[in-house]
Amino acid sequence: MTDYKMVQLTSALPPVPPCIASIPPSAPRRSFLRWITGLCGTVASAVLGLPLVGYFLARRKREVAWVSLGSIEDFPVNETRMIMFDSPLRQPWDGMTAHTGVYVRYEGRDEQSVDRFLVLAVNCAHLGCPVSWFPQSGLFMCPCHGGVYHANGERASGPPPRGMFHCVWRIQDGRLQVQAPHYPTLQDTLDGTV
Ligand code: FES
Questions:
Q1: Closest-CA residue to 127 (of 103, 143, 151)
Q2: Handedness of CA 24, 28, 34, 40 (dihedral sign)
Q3: Most buried residue, 19, 39, 101, 181, by most Cβ within 10 Å?
Q4: Pocket of ligand 1 (CB under 6 A)
Q5: Residues 74-106: pLDDT tens digits?
C-alpha cells in the first residue's frame, strides 16, 4: 500500500528540463567565442591606445617657429610689457585667437653680462584664461576665477595649481625672439618643465 502511493506521486512530477549551462559548448562555438573575445580586446585596445600614440607623435612633430618681439633696447629694466603678435602656428579655424601675445620683463644682465628676460604666456595655469598685468600692485590677475601671480610669474593665490607658463626665448642679432607658444597645459608646458 505504501509503495503504491510513492509511485503515484513520482509520476505526477513534470519532467526536469536540462540546464543549458551544463551543456558543454561545441568546438566551433568555443572557437567563435574565443575569436569574438579577441576581436573585442583588439578594438578596445585600439580605441584606448590610438589617442595616446597620436598625442606623443603630435608632440614630437610640433613645429618650432620663432617670433621677433623687438630690439632688446626696447625693454626697460624690470618693466613688464605685453607684446602681441600673430601666431605662426595658427590654423585657418583659429580666428582671432591666433592673435596672441606674451608678457616680457627685462631683468637686466647677470654676472657674465648676459641679458636676462622673463617671457611668460598670457594663459592662466588654471583653465587658460588670459591674465592681466597690474603694474600698480605688481601682480598678474586672472578675470575668470581670481587666480593671482607675482611679477615673476609665481603663483600668489587662487585656484591655479602652479605659476605662469614660461616661454622659450633667445636673442638673435640684438633682437628678442620667442618660440611661438602653443596653448599650454599642465602636461604640455612651453619650456618642457612640468
Ligand atoms: S582660469 Fe584663471 S583662475 Fe581659473
A1: 143
A2: negative
A3: 181
A4: 124, 126-127, 129, 142, 144-147, 158-160
A5: 999 999 999 999 999 888 888 888 889 999 999
